[in-house]
Structures are given as structure tokens and as C-alpha cells.
Amino acid sequence: MSAPAFANPLQTPDIARRLIAEALGTALLIAIVVGSGIRAELLAAGDIALALLCNALATGAGLVALLVSLGPVSGGHFNPVVTLSQLVQGALSPRAAVAYVSAQLAGAVLGVMAAHAMFGLPLLSMSTQMRTGAPMWWSECVASFGLIGLGLATARRRPALVPFVVAGYITAGYWFTASTSFANPALTIACALTDTFTGIRMIDVPMFIVAQIIGAVNAALLFDWLCPRPVDDQSRPSRRWPLAAAATTSAD
Predict the structure, then answer these.
(1) Residue 229: which pLDDT band, with cuts at 50, 70 and 90?
(2) Max Cα distance, the chain (Å)
């Protein structure tokens, strides 16, 4: 089996580059989600289904671009539950995980501000859109479970396809879940800061995040057992998440 992309230590991005990539990738992801939601709402003229379709397609396309371009630098997390799943599997140290999540949260806020600035809106505005109740929470649990599980399973056997699997699943999640598949605590917090199409009230955020964590942790444990790494690849952390390679080793 060929060596992982960053097997040569000289090619491994340093922690500063990885954190900048995570912050930038998360910021661009949030800008895509929020910005396309604003544009879709403006153009759909009250047609919620059309607005949701436009928002979903833009998000899926943006995810592919971000994972392919920035994934090789940081592992392409852009999502605290992805980082958590790496921590659970032992592919990321607690210190590195905290740094990743901090970068993601900072990037998420910047992403909202960037999207609002493009449409001449206040840089931050608290959402008034209600998203709560058991169906919503269960939706977020399922969405996060699928995101982590399918990403991990694909990474173990067809790593080059992970950007497309992840983006395809999230695009589908807009439609098959009651919550429109946030599946990302950083995105959830960011959407509480925009009173637009993609918004969620801040009071509804904690239960979404709890559901996302439950789904992600269970997926990490189950799929790590269900899709074990090849015998000759047991010492290589690169298979643990889509594009992580040596960028997310436990030595961080």
C-alpha cells in the first residue's frame, strides 16, 4: 500500500498552518451557507422549497471545493464534531483538538460577518427563527451520525472520494432531516448570529449541539469497529478522517 500523503515529516504542515486552514475553511463554509441562504431567500420570492434547494446545492458544491483544496493542509475538519471524532479515535491529541475547535469557532463568526457584509446587513444579528423539539434534535443526531460514519467508512477504503461523499450527504441532509442538517456546532452557533434564512435562535443552539455530539461520538465508535483499517495500515492515522494524514497525529 502506498504511503500516506504527508508521510514525509518535511511535508507535514505545521500547527500554525493547520489552524489557519481550519479557521479559513470554516469561515468560507459559513459564508457559503449563510450567503447562499440570503441570496436564495431574495430570489425565491417566498418559495421556501426553491430557496432550500439553492442553499443546499451551494453548500454541497462549496464543501467539495473546501475539502479538496484545504483538506490536505489541516485534515479538512471545519467542524468541531469531526475534530471530536478524531479525538475519540485517538488520532488527535486533546491539546490539538482544543486548538482546532477554537480556530473553527473563530472562523465561524468571521464567516457570518463576511456573508452579512456582502449583502449590506449588520455584521451580526441574533436570529429569531425557532428550531426546537424532539424531531429537530433527532434529526441533528442522525445527520451528525451519518456525516461522521460515512466519512470515516469512505476514508478507510476510498479516501479520494471523501469530499464528494461528505458533500453529497450534507446536500441530501437538507432535505431528509427536519432540521436541514446543520451537523456542525460551529455552523449552529454561527447561524444564531444571522437573522436570515439559515438562522436558529440562540436558545435552541445547546440542544442541537448536544444531539450533534451524541450522533458523532456513536458514529466514531461504531464505524471504527465496522470499517477497521487494513492490517498493514494499523499505525497510520491518515485513514482516520478524510484528508487528515499526518496533519492530525496524536503527537500534536
Answers:
(1) confident
(2) 56
Handedness of CA 26, 237, 7, 243 (dihedral sign): negative
The grid cell for 169 is: 450527504
Distance separating alpha carbons of residues 242 and 239, to the nearest angstrom: 7
CA 132, CA 205: separation in Å to the nearest integer?
Answer: 9
Q: What is the C-alpha separation between 177 and 62, in angstroms, rounded?
A: 20
In 42-65, which positions are buried (b, 16+ CB within 10 angstroms) versus exposed (e)?
eebeeeeeebbbbbbebbbebbee
- 49-57 long-range CB contacts below 8 Å, 24 or more apart? 51/197, 52/174, 52/175, 52/180, 55/174, 55/197, 55/198, 56/171, 56/174, 56/175, 57/171
Q: Which three cell numbers stand for residue 18?
A: 493547520
3-state secondary structure 45-112: CCCHHHHHHHHHHHHHHHHHHHHHHHHHHHCCCCCHHHHHHHHHCCCCCHHHHHHHHHHHHHHHHHHH
Rounded to whole angstroms, how far apart are CA atoms 112 and 37?
12
Task: Say if CB 189 and CB 107 are below 8 A apart.
Answer: no
pTM of the shown model: 0.88
Closest among 49, 21, 53 to 36, alpha carbons compared: 53
Do 79 and 71 touch, CB atoms closer than 8 A?
A: no
User: Mean pLDDT across the chain, nearest whole number?
Assistant: 89
pLDDT greater at residue 94 or residue 238: 94
